[in-house]
Design a protein that fits this description.
The complex is a heterodimer of chains A (about 120) and B (about 110). Chain A is mainly beta and about 120 residues long. Chain A has no helices and eleven strands. In chain A, the strands form two sheets. In chain A, strands 2, 4, 5, 6, 9, 10 and 11 form a seven-stranded mixed beta sheet that branches. Chain A has a four-stranded antiparallel beta sheet with strand order 1-3-8-7, with no helix packed on it. The mean pLDDT of chain A is about 95. Chain B is an all-beta fold and about 110 residues long. Helices cover about 0% and strands about 45% of the residues of chain B. Chain B is built from no helices and nine strands. In chain B, the strands form two sheets. In chain B, strands 1, 3, 4, 7, 8 and 9 form a six-stranded mixed beta sheet that branches. A three-stranded antiparallel beta sheet of chain B has the order 2-6-5, with no helix packed on it. Classes of the chains: A mainly beta (about 120), B mainly beta (about 110). At the A-B interface, loops of A face strand 7 and strand 8 of B.
Chain lengths: ~120, ~110
Protein backbone atom coordinates (compact mmCIF):
# COMPACT_ATOMS: atom_id res chain seq x y z
CA UNK A 1 0.00 0.00 0.00
CA UNK A 2 1.44 3.34 -1.02
CA UNK A 3 2.28 5.87 1.67
CA UNK A 4 3.05 9.56 1.22
CA UNK A 5 4.90 11.76 3.71
CA UNK A 6 5.35 15.51 3.43
CA UNK A 7 8.35 17.22 4.97
CA UNK A 8 9.81 20.70 5.08
CA UNK A 9 10.03 23.87 7.15
CA UNK A 10 6.95 24.73 9.15
CA UNK A 11 7.72 28.46 9.16
CA UNK A 12 8.59 30.60 6.15
CA UNK A 13 9.16 34.34 6.08
CA UNK A 14 7.13 36.58 3.79
CA UNK A 15 8.61 37.02 0.31
CA UNK A 16 10.69 33.86 0.68
CA UNK A 17 10.25 30.47 -0.97
CA UNK A 18 8.24 27.63 0.51
CA UNK A 19 9.80 24.24 -0.19
CA UNK A 20 8.22 20.89 0.61
CA UNK A 21 9.09 17.31 -0.26
CA UNK A 22 6.75 14.36 -0.56
CA UNK A 23 8.43 10.99 -0.04
CA UNK A 24 6.53 8.08 -1.53
CA UNK A 25 6.91 4.53 -0.26
CA UNK A 26 5.22 1.35 -1.35
CA UNK A 27 5.12 2.39 -4.98
CA UNK A 28 7.20 4.09 -7.63
CA UNK A 29 6.47 7.66 -8.74
CA UNK A 30 7.67 6.54 -12.17
CA UNK A 31 4.73 4.16 -12.49
CA UNK A 32 2.68 5.03 -15.53
CA UNK A 33 -0.46 4.45 -13.53
CA UNK A 34 -0.36 7.58 -11.41
CA UNK A 35 0.11 11.31 -11.16
CA UNK A 36 1.27 13.13 -8.05
CA UNK A 37 -0.37 16.31 -6.86
CA UNK A 38 -0.18 19.00 -4.22
CA UNK A 39 -3.29 20.36 -2.52
CA UNK A 40 -3.44 22.95 0.23
CA UNK A 41 -5.96 23.89 2.88
CA UNK A 42 -5.79 27.21 4.76
CA UNK A 43 -6.78 26.91 8.42
CA UNK A 44 -10.54 26.48 8.71
CA UNK A 45 -11.03 26.67 4.95
CA UNK A 46 -11.50 24.40 1.96
CA UNK A 47 -9.20 22.56 -0.41
CA UNK A 48 -7.27 24.10 -3.27
CA UNK A 49 -5.38 22.15 -5.92
CA UNK A 50 -1.90 23.58 -6.50
CA UNK A 51 -0.63 21.35 -9.27
CA UNK A 52 0.40 17.88 -10.35
CA UNK A 53 3.23 16.06 -12.07
CA UNK A 54 2.88 13.01 -14.24
CA UNK A 55 4.97 9.86 -14.19
CA UNK A 56 6.80 11.24 -17.24
CA UNK A 57 7.48 14.62 -15.65
CA UNK A 58 4.74 16.68 -17.30
CA UNK A 59 3.46 19.35 -14.94
CA UNK A 60 0.02 20.91 -14.56
CA UNK A 61 -0.55 23.97 -12.42
CA UNK A 62 -3.47 25.92 -11.02
CA UNK A 63 -3.44 29.14 -13.09
CA UNK A 64 -3.94 31.22 -9.95
CA UNK A 65 -0.58 29.99 -8.63
CA UNK A 66 1.26 29.09 -11.83
CA UNK A 67 3.62 32.07 -11.83
CA UNK A 68 4.95 31.11 -8.38
CA UNK A 69 4.83 27.29 -8.38
CA UNK A 70 7.28 24.62 -9.46
CA UNK A 71 6.63 20.90 -8.98
CA UNK A 72 9.41 18.46 -9.72
CA UNK A 73 10.23 14.80 -9.22
CA UNK A 74 13.36 12.94 -8.15
CA UNK A 75 12.86 9.36 -9.27
CA UNK A 76 16.09 8.20 -7.62
CA UNK A 77 14.71 9.20 -4.23
CA UNK A 78 11.06 8.52 -5.11
CA UNK A 79 10.18 12.07 -4.10
CA UNK A 80 8.02 14.86 -5.45
CA UNK A 81 8.83 18.44 -4.51
CA UNK A 82 6.91 21.69 -4.32
CA UNK A 83 8.35 25.18 -4.45
CA UNK A 84 6.20 28.27 -4.00
CA UNK A 85 7.94 31.61 -4.34
CA UNK A 86 7.18 35.06 -2.94
CA UNK A 87 4.93 33.74 -0.21
CA UNK A 88 2.55 35.88 1.83
CA UNK A 89 0.35 35.22 4.83
CA UNK A 90 -2.31 34.00 2.41
CA UNK A 91 -0.11 31.00 1.65
CA UNK A 92 -0.36 29.78 5.25
CA UNK A 93 -1.98 26.37 4.98
CA UNK A 94 -1.69 22.65 5.47
CA UNK A 95 -0.03 21.31 2.34
CA UNK A 96 -0.89 17.78 1.23
CA UNK A 97 0.65 15.61 -1.41
CA UNK A 98 -1.70 13.10 -2.98
CA UNK A 99 -1.89 10.59 -5.80
CA UNK A 100 -4.39 10.55 -8.66
CA UNK A 101 -4.83 8.10 -11.50
CA UNK A 102 -5.01 10.36 -14.50
CA UNK A 103 -4.90 13.77 -16.08
CA UNK A 104 -8.71 13.79 -16.16
CA UNK A 105 -9.32 11.35 -13.32
CA UNK A 106 -8.22 13.75 -10.65
CA UNK A 107 -9.59 11.75 -7.77
CA UNK A 108 -6.96 11.77 -5.05
CA UNK A 109 -6.95 8.26 -3.67
CA UNK A 110 -3.94 8.38 -1.35
CA UNK A 111 -2.86 11.35 0.75
CA UNK A 112 0.00 12.29 2.99
CA UNK A 113 -0.77 13.42 6.52
CA UNK A 114 -0.17 17.04 5.58
CA UNK A 115 2.40 19.64 6.55
CA UNK A 116 1.39 22.92 8.18
CA UNK A 117 3.33 25.84 6.76
CA UNK A 118 2.98 29.22 8.43
CA UNK A 119 4.13 32.36 6.65
CA UNK A 120 5.21 34.89 9.22
CA UNK A 121 8.15 37.11 10.04
CA UNK B 1 -15.75 31.61 -3.28
CA UNK B 2 -15.45 27.95 -4.27
CA UNK B 3 -16.08 26.79 -7.80
CA UNK B 4 -18.56 24.11 -6.67
CA UNK B 5 -21.39 24.98 -4.31
CA UNK B 6 -22.18 22.84 -1.28
CA UNK B 7 -24.35 23.55 1.74
CA UNK B 8 -22.17 24.79 4.57
CA UNK B 9 -23.72 22.44 7.12
CA UNK B 10 -26.15 19.59 7.52
CA UNK B 11 -27.25 17.47 10.42
CA UNK B 12 -28.99 14.18 10.95
CA UNK B 13 -29.77 11.66 13.62
CA UNK B 14 -28.22 8.22 13.90
CA UNK B 15 -29.84 5.79 11.51
CA UNK B 16 -31.17 8.49 9.22
CA UNK B 17 -30.14 9.16 5.64
CA UNK B 18 -28.83 12.52 4.47
CA UNK B 19 -27.80 13.90 1.09
CA UNK B 20 -25.19 16.53 0.34
CA UNK B 21 -25.49 18.43 -2.91
CA UNK B 22 -22.67 19.79 -5.03
CA UNK B 23 -23.60 22.22 -7.79
CA UNK B 24 -21.25 23.16 -10.57
CA UNK B 25 -21.56 24.20 -14.19
CA UNK B 26 -21.47 22.74 -17.67
CA UNK B 27 -17.70 23.19 -17.58
CA UNK B 28 -17.27 20.70 -14.78
CA UNK B 29 -19.93 18.57 -13.07
CA UNK B 30 -22.35 18.84 -15.96
CA UNK B 31 -19.98 17.61 -18.63
CA UNK B 32 -17.67 15.11 -16.99
CA UNK B 33 -18.11 11.94 -14.98
CA UNK B 34 -15.10 12.80 -12.87
CA UNK B 35 -16.84 13.84 -9.67
CA UNK B 36 -15.27 12.76 -6.39
CA UNK B 37 -16.27 13.01 -2.74
CA UNK B 38 -13.94 13.24 0.25
CA UNK B 39 -14.49 12.85 3.98
CA UNK B 40 -12.26 14.79 6.34
CA UNK B 41 -12.17 14.41 10.10
CA UNK B 42 -10.62 17.23 12.17
CA UNK B 43 -6.85 17.29 11.92
CA UNK B 44 -6.79 14.50 9.36
CA UNK B 45 -6.16 14.30 5.64
CA UNK B 46 -9.15 13.98 3.33
CA UNK B 47 -10.21 10.45 2.45
CA UNK B 48 -11.61 9.49 -0.94
CA UNK B 49 -15.14 8.12 -0.52
CA UNK B 50 -16.50 8.23 -4.08
CA UNK B 51 -14.85 8.63 -7.48
CA UNK B 52 -16.12 8.91 -11.05
CA UNK B 53 -19.55 10.06 -9.80
CA UNK B 54 -20.68 6.88 -8.09
CA UNK B 55 -17.83 4.42 -7.57
CA UNK B 56 -16.65 3.44 -4.11
CA UNK B 57 -12.98 2.65 -3.49
CA UNK B 58 -12.24 -0.66 -1.85
CA UNK B 59 -13.04 -0.59 1.86
CA UNK B 60 -15.62 2.21 1.73
CA UNK B 61 -18.95 1.27 3.28
CA UNK B 62 -21.91 0.79 0.96
CA UNK B 63 -23.77 3.24 3.21
CA UNK B 64 -22.10 5.85 1.02
CA UNK B 65 -23.59 6.31 -2.43
CA UNK B 66 -23.56 9.10 -4.97
CA UNK B 67 -25.08 10.23 -8.23
CA UNK B 68 -25.23 13.12 -10.64
CA UNK B 69 -27.99 14.92 -12.50
CA UNK B 70 -27.17 17.80 -14.80
CA UNK B 71 -24.82 20.20 -13.07
CA UNK B 72 -25.49 18.82 -9.59
CA UNK B 73 -23.89 15.83 -7.89
CA UNK B 74 -25.11 14.33 -4.65
CA UNK B 75 -23.63 12.19 -1.91
CA UNK B 76 -26.01 10.14 0.19
CA UNK B 77 -25.09 8.61 3.51
CA UNK B 78 -27.58 6.08 4.80
CA UNK B 79 -27.81 4.68 8.31
CA UNK B 80 -25.96 7.66 9.79
CA UNK B 81 -23.40 6.77 12.42
CA UNK B 82 -21.52 8.95 14.88
CA UNK B 83 -18.27 8.28 12.97
CA UNK B 84 -19.77 9.91 9.87
CA UNK B 85 -19.56 13.31 11.55
CA UNK B 86 -16.96 15.10 9.44
CA UNK B 87 -16.46 17.62 6.68
CA UNK B 88 -17.32 16.46 3.17
CA UNK B 89 -15.89 17.93 -0.02
CA UNK B 90 -16.85 17.33 -3.62
CA UNK B 91 -14.54 17.87 -6.55
CA UNK B 92 -14.76 17.67 -10.30
CA UNK B 93 -12.53 17.78 -13.32
CA UNK B 94 -13.00 21.12 -15.02
CA UNK B 95 -12.43 22.10 -18.62
CA UNK B 96 -11.43 25.52 -17.40
CA UNK B 97 -7.73 26.09 -16.95
CA UNK B 98 -8.09 25.22 -13.27
CA UNK B 99 -8.43 21.54 -14.24
CA UNK B 100 -9.85 20.41 -10.89
CA UNK B 101 -12.26 22.33 -8.70
CA UNK B 102 -13.46 21.68 -5.16
CA UNK B 103 -16.60 22.53 -3.29
CA UNK B 104 -16.42 24.68 -0.19
CA UNK B 105 -17.18 21.72 2.06
CA UNK B 106 -20.16 20.61 4.13
CA UNK B 107 -19.90 20.09 7.86
CA UNK B 108 -22.03 17.08 8.79
CA UNK B 109 -23.20 16.84 12.36
CA UNK B 110 -24.66 13.62 13.72
CA UNK B 111 -27.06 14.64 16.45
Amino acid sequence: QVQLQESGPGLVKPAETLSLTCTVSGGSISSSSYYWGWIRQPPGKGLEWIGSISYSGTTYYNPSLKSRVTISADTSKNQVSLKLTSVTAADTAVYYCARHPGVYAMNFDSWGQGALVTVSS
Amino acid sequence: QSALTQPASLSGSPGQAISISCTGTSSDVGSYNYVSWYQQHPGKAPKLMIYDVSNRPSGISNRFSASKSGNTASLTISGLQAEDEADYYCSSFSSSTTRVVFGGGTKLTVL
